[in-house]
Design goal:
CATH topology of the largest domain: Methylamine Dehydrogenase, Chain H
Largest sheet: 4 strands, antiparallel
CATH architecture of the largest domain: 7 Propeller
Structural class: mainly beta
Number of helices: 1
Strand order of the largest sheet: 3-25-24-23
Helix content: under 10%
Number of strands: 25
CATH superfamily of the largest domain: YVTN repeat-like/Quinoprotein amine dehydrogenase
Shape: globular
CATH class of the largest domain: Mainly Beta
Length: 318
């Protein structure tokens, strides 16, 4: 009998709460004046995990995570941090200026730059080993390695491969249509990507013997290069684009482009079907922040943005 009375009382209370608009709303949602629940705003796809200002000489910056990062710069000056930019010890390196960087893991990283010098570390940045120079003149700012032996290095118009820690180099034949290389990415010993400045992405599955191509919707951003050519990335000394694929289907192309009358903008293009379709989104992690250089980790989880004033923002994929 008491159980029946309790049940009736509970039902009455529930009806009363519903009629007076005091019913509970699920966590993560809000209710409007009419009592209708609406989803809470979604968290940004990328969130800031580190902000810092580089005070030593540096051309280009990249972080593997919130703690480990590198800067490469003037006269071969290279610094590393393992404490989230609290300190920046200088690594032992002898080379000309460095313009490009790839971080394989917490021990291995590669750096390229002037006079075709190639350097790599296997101890997290303390010491940098002199590899054989790339057999071409000028400088390089594109480098992508899968370990301490196998990788690619590129200038604006030439691509080289090695499988023996750069003891020897093999010049790869680029496909027709490559006019200005904006980024490269080597996913495996035979599978790689070359991004042209017009948004054409060239893909090889056989070490560069043959290539397929895809087109990214660069023009949809309203971008133009310094010559006023629409849908084109600028020709820059330091990387303004990064490509990464975690498998044959899932990839990210991250770019910093110039929008006429608006300045620099960061855009991300993502695919989950091998490039058959792409989604595009503008990334604006900080109000008024206008980066010019970009670094993306090989797993696509961390992105490093840096401005001309060397204000560095690291964001993590959520």
């Amino acid at each position: 009998m008491n159980k029946n009375i309790s049940a009736i009382a509970g039902l009455a209370l529930s009806v009363c709460l519903a009629l007076t608009g005091c019913g509970s709303v699920k966590t993560g949602a809000s209710a409007d004046a009419g009592g209708n629940s609406t989803p809470a705003p979604a968290k940004p796809a990328w969130q800031i995990v580190l902000e810092t200002k580089i005070t030593h000489k540096s051309n280009y910056e990249g972080f593997l995570n919130e703690k480990l990062g590198f800067t490469v710069g003037y006269n071969g000056e290279i610094h590393y941090t393992r404490d989230g930019a609290a300190t920046w010890p200088q690594g032992q390196n002898n080379s000309h200026c460095r313009f490009g960087l790839d971080i394989v893991n917490d021990k291995i990283a590669w750096a390229v730059g002037n006079y075709s010098n190639v350097r790599y570390t296997v101890d997290g940045g303390e010491n940098w080993i002199a590899a054989k120079d790339v057999p071409t003149s000028g400088s390089q700012n594109q480098v992508s390695f899968i370990d301490d032996k196998t990788g690619w290095v590129a200038s604006d118009t030439k691509l080289f491969a090695t499988t023996d820690s750069a003891a020897t180099w093999n010049k790869l034949t680029l496909p027709e249509g490559v006019k200005l290389i904006s980024s490269i990415f080597l996913r495996s010993a035979t599978e790689g990507y070359v991004l042209n400045s017009d948004g054409t992405l060239f893909i090889t599955a056989d070490g560069g013997a043959s290539w397929n191509k895809l087109s990214l919707p660069f023009k949809d951003t309203g971008m133009a290069n310094g010559k006023g050519q629409e849908g084109m990335l600028n020709d820059t000394q330091f990387p303004n684009a990064r490509v990464t694929f975690t498998d044959a289907n899932h990839g990210i192309v991250a770019i910093i482009c110039t929008i006429p009358k608006k300045g620099y903008q960061t855009w991300l293009f993502e695919t989950s079907d091998g490039g058959a379709t792409w989604s595009s989104n503008q990334l604006n992690p900080k109000e008024g922040y206008m980066p010019t250089n970009i670094f993306l980790t090989r797993d696509g989880q961390y992105m490093t943005l840096s401005s001309t004033g060397k204000e560095v923002v690291v964001v993590k994929r959520q």
